[in-house]
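Input/output pair, single chain:
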Amino acid sequence: MTRLFLTLFCSIAVIALPLPATASSSTNLARELLELAPTLDRKVLQRAVAAMECALDQGADDAERLAIIDFSLPSSEQRLWIFDLESRALLLHELVAHGQGSGQNLASEFSNVSGSHQSSIGLFRTSESYYGRHGYSLRMDGLEPGVNDLARDRAIVIHGADYVDPAWIDRQGRIGRSLGCPAVRQEVAGQVVDTLKNGQFLFSWYPDPEWLASSSYLNCQSRSIASLQ
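Output:
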């Protein structure tokens, strides 16, 4: 009888154990951000949070902002979201260009190769702002070897561009395309750069099977990310 009681007690105790704090906090973050951006695909947001949390587990410094680009959406739609992680606020929801080599209105080809004029997917860390040929711009570093780690060498930066203009959509069904950079509207370029500079996270999504299978950030074992239901 005593042994049966102990067995039942232990079973109940195990069931009652809470989720690990890290998994619970990650799930809460994703849910809160989803409420702010209901048009952002739930699975894309979940992947972005998982990738960021994995980088933090591996020793990356905390960030104040998280930007998400969903390249599975056409360029004629607003597919860039920028979140403030501290205040839990959606700061911007904007148009963003992809590279000429990635496709027309829909991007489908991505590269880490100089001269490809294709966009790169994966997890990035933003770096310093500067003034260059496109005006006020933002450099960033790809964190995924073989996927986006040549971003700085390729001069893949965030900058403003005249061709990121809703008027282009009315004329040709899409905005203009870059040489691989995630270009934004001139009117918001300064705000985007200032919001994301100095070590924020940027996650560019496309359901590429090879990347999904091989990305260390999407297949991180150090933290369990509970699914959003």
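The longest helix spans residues 21-36. Residues 27 and 226 are 6 Å apart (CA to CA).
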